[in-house]
Amino acid sequence: MGDSEAETVAGHSGRWFKDRERRGLSSVATDRGRFTNHVGPVLGPQPTGEVTRDEIRAVVEQLDGATRRGTFSWRTAVKAWGLVTKMFSDACDSKVAALRVRSDNPCAGLPGSDRCARKAKQSLYPVEASALLACPDVPLRWRRLYSLATYLYLRPGELAALEWADVNTDQRYVSMHQALDMRPGEAKATKTGITRKVPIRPELAPLLDAMRTESGGEGRVIQHDHANKDATHAFPPIRRSVHTRTVLAPTGPHLATVRRDDRKVASPTGFEPVLQP
After folding, report:
1. Taking CA 219 as the corner, what is the angle to CA 276 and CA 263, rounded to the nearest 5 degrees?
2. Which of 222, 196, 197, 78 is nearest to 144 (CA)?
């Protein structure tokens, strides 16, 4: 038995994740945690080259059981199962020779972790968006953030990475070509890898002009460095609630919710809120 075949799943997964880091995959940090916590206890000590289909089935059973007990969500289980199938697929067919340690894929054809019903999404209606953007109890920097998310319909990471050099107010468009990985604070490609032009609606132009003047028109549109966290053009923590005095819901709308309902809210038949510069 060669050294590569005797290597445990825990050891092999470490090399596999390092290769994924080398290729620039931004989800490695969270993926490594999922694998260690939810797969490692079952497969970690086993030699990668000797893992059987029954042992893979045991992983699925463990994930489904934890989901039923409420230990974690079914989405976490599905993502953990996806890591297992991908790692063992690469263990026999990876482009990197050092990661090929098997001649077969023990996951092939096996049913994965159960999927449950998807929860209903929180919707943001035009009248609610208008109330949110006009509410004086919501800090100005949050209202600006929601305004930009509503009218530009960018993903949170894309909005965080948006630079003034990408905002063309003369031609009324924003060039979207990168996103920000929030954990290391590094720029990366957009989720689709496609550069696109997003139109700037006339209602948003005055706000962008005011923010450009305040910031000097250099760097990122939304400042999120710690030193600038209190500035009116700063980027608030995405997962923090807006405020304790509610406007729409006890925790306020999530930024992704605002983006999801963007086309309905920003449509000509939607609403025309007064955006405070």
Report:
1. 50
2. 222
